[in-house]
Amino acid sequence: MRLIRCSVRWLRPIWPLPLVVMQMAHISEPMFTSSGKRFYEVQVSRGRGKSRVTRRFYPKSGWSEVTVGKELLKFANELERQVHIGEILSRRERKAAEKAEAEARDGVPTVKQYGEDTFMPAKTITMSEQGRCSYQGTLNNWIYPALGEIKMPEVTSGQISRMLVAAQGQGKAHATVVKIYTVCQSLFKMAFMAGDIQVNPMDRVARPKPRKDEVERDGPEAYTAQETLYIMECLEKEPLKWQLFLRIAIDTGMRRGELCGIRWDCVDYENCTIAIRENVAYTPAKGVYSDTSKTRRVRVVDVDPAVMELLKRYQGTKESEFPSPYVFSQSNSDKPMFPSTPEHYCRQFGKKYGINHLYPHKLRHTFASVSITAGADVASISEKLGHKDKSTTLRHYTHSNPEKIKEASQVFRNAVKAAEKHKTDTSE
Hints:
The protein is an alpha+beta fold. The protein folds into three domains: 1-107, no CATH class; 111-214, Tyrosine recombinase, N-terminal domain (DNA polymerase, domain 1, Orthogonal Bundle); 225-396, hpI Integrase, Chain A (Orthogonal Bundle), CATH 1.10.443.10. It has 15 helices and nine strands. The chain has helices spanning 65-84, 91-107, 111-126, 129-147, 157-169, 174-193, 225-235, 240-252, 256-260, 305-318, 340-353, 360-373, 378-385, 390-396, 402-427; strands at residues 25-27, 31-32, 38-44, 53-57, 267-268, 273-276, 278-283, 287-292, 299-302. The strands form three sheets. Strands 1, 2, 3 and 4 form a four-stranded antiparallel beta sheet that branches. It has a three-stranded antiparallel beta sheet with strand order 5-6-9, with no helix packed on it. Strand 5 and strand 6 (273-276) form a beta hairpin. The longest helix is centred in the C-terminal third of the chain and has 26 residues, at 402-427.
């Protein structure tokens, strides 16, 4: 019999033993639990300076001594193999690994922690105050309540999708749901690009689609040329201030904040142009404030001479009022007009003259749509609107109208008739 290397405790020989030599396993003498059940302790050395791995082996009742010896050696061999390949750690190492894992987990931020400590500070540098407030509101109202306490790497696509569905289920506007999607996309993309998460859960989240009851709920996104003419005719009955504001909006496609931010020193009567340098915005924290334009560059737009004449008349009336560097200012103040003021006026104006869904941004849509439908160059229109990419103009500000739809239908019919005529001619 070849002897098995044993531990300090005495090993009672088990006869007969298989011809197996254990290199590092040590088997104790039989031991007994308080209930009298027999067991053996098997220890495997892990090398100098490392603690041993100890496991108990419990023979089954009814086994012969030969079977116990065979099964015990199998157990010891398997334990040794598992230790050698790293499948089993010592108790000390297991506790150390668990501790390290817990510490590492504690160092992984939750969605809320990442949003507050990393995401929003970065956005504050790159975004306008208005944009920052919009993002913060979306985080506070939607993302943090649903995902805030979850560790960043543990957020799943399903959790994000359920949050979006919940927002839709509450009847929130499609634009609101898309905003939640956009903020999530930005947040997790930043974390993924920085290596803070290994998988971006947004890769498997589809962009929300509008509910069925939202389709065309607000009517067409732009007015036709005939409808625009009617609006201009109605404006002739309105105060000079609002005649001027909406005429500039119609003629140039300026954003609402850009209109509120026009300064007198940006007006060039000689060349019939207005330089757009500022964008007026409002947040509860800052109130009304002037920021750089959305594109962060000065752009100069041409203005209809008739509109410039209105501007001259209006400047004459303003000289007797409270002086302000802004063309459209608050009453008895040198500060720019609240961006919400034109919205309120447009609603009242629309009700008064039977114009559905009138708001400043729809006039911006109208400028682009009517211009491009009439054959204007898209790149030029994009420049006047202040878009960085003309694809934005095509995607958001071009709309079909009944005349063009009829024209497209007639083109199709003419093509079919031409094919029919060609077939007849060739058959003859």
